[in-house]
Every structure is written in structure tokens, then in C-alpha cells.
Amino acid sequence: MKRLSPEGRTVAMLLGVVVTMGALAWAAVPFYDWFCRVTGFGGTTQVSETASDQILDEVVRVRFDANTDSNLEWTFRPMQARMDLKIGESGLAFYEAVNNSDVPLTGTASYNVAPEVSGYYFIKVECFCFTEQTLQPGERVEMPVSFYVDPELVDDRDAGHVRDITLSYTFHRTEPRSAALDSGAADTIN
């Protein structure tokens, strides 16, 4: 086998670097999503299929916040400003969305909690943010979110002092999945 010239080795090495960087960039999004879900990093909340089986006497205040991306012609707001719950107690809050345009619009909600250290302990049981929402022109909907704050919060040395949590949603305009699938486009993961 013939040895590569110094220029050939440089080209091969640079090509290897480009391929490696591309692979790392491709893997970064799913890895970051997994990391945030596991650790609660960045205020990412957890998901559970059941409510807590333990309720403490300590109270936590949950505040609700809503935002809409500028390219989505919706009015989106929490229907309550805050809720006081015992830690471990299930809460049910509602958000209202209104399509202010004259065409059907689809949106997906991104979410987080603040302070970030509480994200690992904020557990959603059911949420409108798990699926895309399509509203017809002028349509108004009330969307529920069922949640609780995990009692393990009080034992965490960084988050144990938290008794005030803000749950924040931002709705972003998206193309309806059914339309994307009908046109033969591949699924996208947000």
C-alpha cells in the first residue's frame, strides 16, 4: 500500500475532523434533550403517569406564565396567576389559547420552570404541551396541565429551600404533523 503524501495526510486528517464534528453535531440534540430530561437541567420538568403517593405539610407556590412566539397569532394566557399546594399534592391548572387569525394555526408549547434547580422535582402527569395544538380561526380552548412537586425536593441540598416555582410556556407556530406526513416529509423531533 502506498503511503500518502504530507498533503494527502493533511486532507485525510481534515476530512476525519469534519466527519467527526458532523457526527457530534448530529448527536448533540438528542443527547442534550436526554440530559435535560434526566437531570432537570435548564428547568426541564419530569413526566410521570401517576400522582405522588406522599403529601407533605409544607406548601409550595406555583406561578404560571405564558408567552407566544411573534409568528403565531394567538392570545395565550394562564387562567390563574398562582396556586398554593402542599408538596406532593396534585395540581390542575388551565391555560387559555385563542386563534386571532382567519386561518387554522398549529402550535407547540415549549416549557421550563424557574428556578432551574426545581425542574427535576416538578412532575407533569398530563399536559397540553405533550402534543401539538391546532386552533381554527377564532377558536378558543382551555388546556389543562396536571402536575405535582416531588416530595424529594425537601431533601435536595440545592433545591430544598425552594417554595416558589414558576411554570412558563411559550407557544411556537409549527406545521401540522398530519400535513407534513401527507406530503411525504419525514417526522421532525423538537
From TrEMBL:
An annotated Gene Ontology molecular function: copper ion binding
Intervals, Periplasmic compartment: 29-190
Gene3D superfamilies: Ctag/Cox11
GO biological process, one term: respiratory chain complex IV assembly
Membrane spanning residue stretches: none
Subcellular location: Cell inner membrane
Main location: membrane
Cytoplasmic domain ranges by topology: 1-7
InterPro entries: CtaG/Cox11_dom_sf, Cyt_c_oxidase_assmbl_CtaG
Domain of life: Bacteria
One Pfam family from the record: CtaG_Cox11
Keyword annotations from UniProtKB, A to Z: Cell inner membrane, Cell membrane, Copper, Membrane, Signal-anchor, Transmembrane, Transmembrane helix
Function: Exerts its effect at some terminal stage of cytochrome c oxidase synthesis, probably by being involved in the insertion of the copper B into subunit I.
NCBIfam families in alphabetical order: PRK05089.1
Protein name: Cytochrome c oxidase assembly protein CtaG
Name of the gene: ctaG
